[in-house]
Amino acid sequence: xxxxxxxxxxxxxxxxxxxxxxxxxxxxxxxxxxxxxxxxxxxxxxxxxxxxxxxxxxxxxxxxxxxxxxxxxxxxxxxxxxxxxxxxxxxxxxxxxxxxxxxxxxxxxxxxxxxxxxxxxxxxxxxxxxxxxxxxxxxxxxxxxxxxxxxxxxxxxxxxxxxxxxxxxxxxxxxxxxxxxxxxxxxxxxxxxxxxxxxxxxxxxxxxxxxxxxxxxxxxxxxxxxxxxxxxxxxxxxxxxxxxxxxxxxxxxxxxxxxxxxxxxxxxxxxxxxxxxxxxxxxxx
Length: 285
Ligand code: URA
Hints:
Elements: H1 3-8, H2 12-25, H3 85-95, H4 99-108, H5 114-117, E1 125-126, E2 132-136, H6 141-146, H7 153-163, E3 178-182, H8 196-213, E4 217-221, H9 223-230, H10 235-238, E5 243-245, E6 248-253, H11 256-261, H12 266-280
Parallel strand pairs: 2-3, 2-4, 4-6
Antiparallel strand pairs: 1-3, 5-6
């Protein structure tokens, strides 16, 4: 008997549990879809309309008057009117008067599918009074487990990078502190890039986050935060060049995960950190 028949039976949950245990034995550690898909139950796609040769309009009446001239109605019902997730996010973000309010709002936002697959909402780490806000992409596996941004290998490199210019997420002194957050508050399955729609619905929260934390400078690490703040990608070209977004000076930098894969790029990252330090010390950067 196959897994499909087993799961359909009265002891279905036992079979499902056994199938899950078997997958774990095989070394499966990740769910790669946003939602579970039972492919045994998936409905076949609606048939394509039959191709017919084009015909001239019949004389004496508008085309489409005779039976058979009409397009067959689609075999599926139209989707119900979609909720405008960006508008909902905008409203929730605007109502947040403090960072704690914003954290609550993000926790209560249910329109991002990523939330359903995540163990934790990853909101922030560090000192909210810091002069520098670091904006990353999205939580990875360790961040999802721990509920804090940048706690994996890339995060450890990030800590060493900023320590080299005297900044730390654990410093209680605002002068020497860092505040760290991400564009996405939930881990994308398999660490895939967030989609443009997902970034768009997080943008109001990111903007309000920066407004409420009110740092002197924002460092965007990677393409996703560059996209979220500046509406463009191409971090390798953008890095090191200060821009302005949301009324704040913004320094694009390569993501520490990229630096782990490309150690030669650390030289440019060091020059970007020195530029940040110069700006904080009162120079132009
Ligand atoms: N990469 C990110 O961009 N953010 C994290 O929190 C972890 C890894």
